[in-house]
Specification:
InterPro entries: AAA+_ATPase (IPR003593), ABC_transporter-like_ATP-bd (IPR003439), ABC_transporter-like_CS (IPR017871), ABC_transporter_ATP-bind (IPR050166), P-loop_NTPase (IPR027417). GO terms for molecular function: ATP binding. This is ABC transporter ATP-binding protein YtlC. Pfam families: ABC_tran. It is a single chain. The protein has one domain: Rossmann fold (3-Layer(aba) Sandwich). It is built from nine helices and nine strands. The strands form two sheets. A six-stranded mixed sheet has the order 5-6-7-3-8-9, with helices on both faces. β8 and β9 form a beta hairpin. The longest helix is centred in the C-terminal third of the chain and has 19 residues.
């Protein structure tokens, strides 16, 4: 049974003088524990779709179900990680990590201990009492991941979470997030403009076309790549073959705008 189902999703943005169609007739399903990436030209509706999956937007047409219910009824089980870490600068790292638990009224001795233990697991031991300004960009994104994971979400939505980082830090965080999500058996949807990132982290890649935004083609990542870390995947021949195949499709979409 599918964990996420999207059926005939359409979404329009209205102004006093015009209507813009961001998404049209988008349908797909995602299994529990699967990692899926959304890629495509700018303006193809990827971030709009992520907002619909999160429950922040209600689609104009169609419906989304997460574990059998609409997203707005499942918000406590959805984690959202963005390009910016959005840590509160006046709060310590510990306070930032625990804020979701506080808001969801889940903060107690056990959940606090689990969240702080997770901080240690991702290489942030000893920074609990520091403020975000004392941390590097990569460390701040790790703290943002810890905050997201503290509430134990079943679904993680990732909106270009590594794009603001230098390349070496980005590769390290890709491996870390991949390892954490597989270890905790989380379902994840990643929006990215980085084709290499999409292939190296995912089980499937969903390619979107624009004008209007629609699902153009789905690419399965070969089984033997899925057991490797994203860094290891990038050195495989199958990775290069899939990269070239999707790249050609992207070029075709750009030419046919």
């Amino acid at each position: 049974m599918s964990f996420i189902t999207a059926e005939n999703i359409g979404h329009h943005y209205f102004t006093p003088s015009s209507v813009r169609t961001a998404l049209k007739n988008v349908s797909f399903s995602i299994k529990e524990g699967e990692f899926v990436s959304l890629i495509g030209p700018s303006g193809c509706g990827k971030t709009t779709l992520l907002s619909i999956l999160s429950g922040l937007l209600v689609p104009t047409d169609g419906e989304v179900k997460i574990d059998g219910q609409p997203p707005d009824l499942q918000r406590n089980m959805i984690g959202y990680m963005l390009q910016q870490d959005y840590l509160f600068p006046w709060k310590t790292i510990e306070e930032n990590v625990l804020i979701g638990l506080k808001l969801n009224r889940q903060l107690d001795k056990d959940t606090k201990a689990s969240a702080l233990e997770f901080l240690q697991k991702i290489g942030l031991e000893g920074v609990e009492k520091q403020f975000p300004r004392h941390l590097s960009g990569g460390m701040r994104q790790r703290a943002a991941l810890a905050r997201t994971m503290a509430v134990n979400p079943k679904l993680l939505l990732l909106d270009e979470p590594f794009s603001a980082l230098d390349y070496q830090t980005k590769l390290k965080l890709e491996d870390l997030v991949f390892e954490i999500l597989k270890a905790y058996r989380k379902t994840a949807v990643l929006v990215t403009h980085d084709l290499g990132e999409a292939i190296s982290m995912s089980d499937r890649v969903l390619l979107f076309a624009t004008n209007p935004g629609r699902l153009h083609k789905v690419f399965e990542v070969p089984d033997h790549l899925r057991g490797l870390s994203p860094f290891e995947v990038r050195s495989e021949d199958a990775y290069s073959d899939l990269f070239r195949t999707i790249w050609k499709e992207l070029e075709t979409l750009e030419e046919n705008k």
